[in-house]
Design brief:
With about 300 residues, this protein is α+β, with helices and mostly antiparallel strands. The chain has seven helices and 14 strands. The chain binds succinic acid and manganese (II) ion (MN). Succinic acid (SIN) binds near residues 97, 222, 233 and 235.
Length: about 300
Amino acid sequence: MKLTPEQRTQFDRDGYLFFPGLFTPQETQNLNDAVPELYSRREDFNVREKGKDAVRTNFAAHLYSKPFAKLARHPRMIEPVEDLLGEQLYMHQFKINGKMAFEGDVWQWHQDYGTWLNDDMMPTERAMNIAIFLDDVNEHNGPLMFIPGSHKKGVVDAKHDLTTTSYPLWTVDNDLIRQLVQRGGGKGRYDADGHSVGGGIVSPKGPAGSMILFHSCLVHASGSNLSPFNRVAVYLSLCAVSNHIRRHKRPEYIAHRDFTPITCLPDDCLVKDYPVDLPWKDGVPATAMQTSMEPMAAMKKAA
Ligand code: SIN
Ligand code: MN
């Protein structure tokens, strides 16, 4: 899937592109059906909400679950990002976020690249996020909130928040969020049909199978899910191969260490059988749990 010149202009301006219903219900079915069993596993790769059993995020399913291994090689996701970054990609991070009915907690305001820089020593912002909705996303179940254009600020100041939720995140403080939102249109206004338009925060909403592509410096967040509707979504963080991380401070199930370029499967891979490698199908290797604050040897030599 190639992007049109209009889409490239829109991406440059807003920092994201939304593709409602890009994947059919038939294509998302096998993925959705696989989630409860993955979430039931008592493994480090399932991070549960603070003080709760509900899964906040599951990491690295593409290495041990066939439907997700196929998704991770889907041309509708990989090709537009290769096109935008002009280079082959590897999978930096792969997660299935739960945001479960009644239990899903907030994601504070942040840029993903802030975490990849501060924790993983990813050299530049040449990486991209893709979100695929596995449930319908509406205004009630904690949709993502973006500040359009905020990616133009580059990397902004962030603090390491280890306490608000069960998952540490480099977060952006409220004063800067206020400025960025104001600059983007503030509250916006209501049009004649009662729709809110022109504001500095947007929330793409749509049916299961919708896809969002967003810049690694786009500032985003999401509220808690008080509704009775799950909001399961898959996030691929795709990094240009030459921009691979330089430090293994986090376990490999969170920040991957295999920088092999992704090879796409055919477009019908979610509804047909294709062979895929599942290197962690018998468990996460012990080496994946080893971490270090030291930059990788190659980086040290280069320095
Ligand atoms: C994220 O920013 O990584 C996740 C946000 C969400 O799932 O709402
Ligand atoms: Mn994020």
